[in-house]
Amino acid sequence: MDKVMSWFTDSLAPGMQRVFGNPWVSAVASAMQKILPFILVGSVVSIYNVFVRYIPSLPDLSFVNTFSFGMMSLIVAFMVPYFGMTELDHPKYEVTAGLTSVTVFLMALCPTVASLAKNAESGLTEYLVTDINYLGGSGLFVAIVMALLVMLIFHLYSKLHVLEGSDAVPDFVIEWINNIIPMTFIYLLVGAAVFVLSVDIVGIIDVIFQPLNAIGQSLPGFLIINFLYVLLYSVGVSAWSLNAIVKPILVAGISANAAAVAAGGAPLYIVTTETIFTTALIAMGGLGGTLPLNVLMFRCKSKKLRTMGKICIGPSIFNINEPLVYGAPIVFNPLLMIPMWINSIVGPLIVWFAMSFGMLNIPAGVNNVSRIPAPICTWLTTDDWRAFIWFAVLFVVYLLIWLPFVKKYDAQLVEQEAKREAEQTAAEASPATV
Description:
This protein is mainly alpha-helical. The protein folds into two domains: 1-22 and 217-422, no CATH class; 68-209, no CATH class. 67% of the residues lie in helices and 3% in strands. It contains 18 helices and two strands. The protein has helices at residues 2-20, 23-34, 36-54, 62-66, 72-87, 94-108, 140-160, 171-196, 201-216, 219-234, 243-262, 273-278, 291-297, 303-317, 322-327, 334-356, 376-382, 387-429, and strands spanning 112-119, 123-129. The chain has a two-stranded antiparallel ribbon with strand order 1-2. Strand 1 (112-119) and strand 2 form a beta hairpin. Helix 5 (72-87) packs parallel to helix 7, helix 10 (219-234) packs antiparallel against helix 16 (334-356) and helix 13 crosses helix 18 (387-429). The longest helix has 43 residues, at 387-429. The chain is globular and about 85 Å long. The chain starts with a helix and ends in a 5-residue tail after the last helix.
């Protein structure tokens, strides 16, 4: 076990930090973090819509969701190059690259122009039309690819040092030219592909990412995603680093579910943020199902575990387990890491089969408000009274998985505390020396 822990400490954790610290990956991860407020706005409306089903007289607020969560790809198209320019040390291009990315993203969607009658005096008015679904979760992969392309071109151009500061030319003129050149190249490149060569950029990107999305939406992909989240977390690497890769899959899933329900169909995709986090079935008390651990700590004989149990129970109820993970600790503690890893496999397996066989509703609307205590958030996310039953079942399962490991760890701590107390007592009883 010492060799395994040494490998985690010396090889895995530093290696993962380097991978996720890459400026290109980091830019996407940062963008995914910054869209959280827009997701939360949509989440509030989704929770509100649960009550609308029971009280039909309440007003329809779905337009709020459409123009917050529903604009996610548009926002990501701006955010990725914005953060990318910072990561690549080109701060003067942050806003320009972001806005360029937004416009070429819209260009890549290959919008059509429709003519509508405005009035007899002005005649026909032309409107730019595109599928609004691609501005939300459906277009997330397209937005990221176009954003990375913009990042690359601005980065390469900045390395050329085409125009530098000069006494003969005002700085603002140089800045204009240094923005215009890469922008023009990007517009010509994407525009020629879309409007001259009739390249279906959206179709190509969908084909490229379809295998990744298909794997992510499968049972093995579901288990891998959940295990990686917990594995990274337990070795001190931020689990949110995975968002650059995983978040687009999760968002695409819930977007497709929402669209299916709006069209009168049924949700199909289980692998969503809502299933993993917001239902608090897999992340019960937080990643790794730590709420039952917190409850067990109240019955421990170790002073440390009992004290930490009392301190952490408040956050745990609201599905926040950082105090517990770092305070117990679970991080780099084999006796608590192992059951946390087991929970990250067993919990998702149970949830997958419960939803696959119709024993629990698949989440059908965006809801990232996971800080509501479970099982209330479980019911709100699934809109299913059976959520209370599955919460109880999983609580017991996690409890039984934690129990033998907690007993062993508790016994070790009791022995250590007794040894320290004996040493302290001996030190106090020994005669003072001059």
